[in-house]
C-alpha cells in the first residue's frame, strides 16, 4: 500500500515526459540504483542468411517498482531483450545488469520470475504440481512449497484450483496459473513476454486489472512485452517503443496516469494522448524500415 500511494502522488505530474525532460527522482527508493540497467546493448544473431541485428545500442534503466512495457512490430527484439535479462541469450556488445549483477548471477540468485507467451503448464501435473515443480528443483522444503503454492494461487485468484489439471481451466486461468508459478520464486522482478496475447479482449481486460492490483500489492518491478497499445498504456509507468532492423528503442514514454487505474481510464484524454504518442512512435519505426 505504501508503495502504491507513494507512486500515485509521484504520478500527479499530468504531462508527458521524455527521458530528457523527466524531473530528477525525489524519493530514496527512486534514487537507488536501477533494477535493470542496459548500456549500448547489441545482439546480432549469425544465421545461414547472414547476420540478424536483433538489438542495437539499447540503453535503458528500469527503476524498482516500475511497470515497463515494450511495444513494437514483430521482430524488433522485444523477446530478445527479455531473454538477455534472463540470461537465455548473450549480448554481442554493451552491458546489462539485473539487480546490480550480471544476468547469469541474477539467474542463479533467482532474481526474477519469467512468464512466457504460452502458459506452458505440464498437462500431467495439477496446477499445484506445476507451481511446485521449480520449487522442488530448488530444494525448498515441502512445508514451504505448500505455503508458497497457497499464497500465489490466492494472489492470482485461483485458490481452490490447486488439484485441478490445466485442461480443466480456461485459457485465462491457465495463464494466471503460469503467473502464479513465476510468482512462487518470490522474486522482486517479473519478466512477462506477451502473457495475454492469445486471449480474447474481455478476459485480457480482466487479467490486466488483476495484474495491476497484484503489482500495487507487491511493488514488483515488471518488464512486460505486448503488441497492444491499450494494454501497454493501461498497465505501464513507462512505455518503451521499439523499431525493427536493427531492433532499437525509438521512444520512451513516461506515463502521467495515476497508479490506480479503473478500466474506464482508457476513455480519458490523458490516456488517448499517450496512446496516440505510442502509435506515432510505432509508425515512425515502420517508416524507417
Ligand atoms: N535464435 C535466433 N537465431 C536467429 N535469429 C533470431 C533468433 N531469435 C530471434 N531472432 C531474430 O531476431 C529478431 C528479433 O526477434 P524477437 O523474437 O526478439 O522479436 P520480437 O520483437 O519479440 O518479435 P515478436 O513480436 O514477433 O515476438 C527477429 O528478426 C528474429 O527472427
Automatic annotation (TrEMBL):
List, in alphabetical order, the Gene Ontology terms for molecular function in this entry. Answer: ATP binding; ATP hydrolysis activity
> Which residue numbers delimit the ABC transporter domain?
36-265
Q: Which SMART domains match?
A: AAA (SM00382)
Q: Which UniProt keywords apply?
A: ATP-binding, Nucleotide-binding, Transport
* InterPro entries linked to this entry: AAA+_ATPase, ABC_transporter-like_ATP-bd, ABC_transporter-like_CS, ABC_transporter_ATP-bind, P-loop_NTPase
Q: Which domain of life is it from?
A: Bacteria
Q: What is this protein called?
A: ATP-binding cassette domain-containing protein
Q: What organism is the protein native to?
A: Halovulum marinum
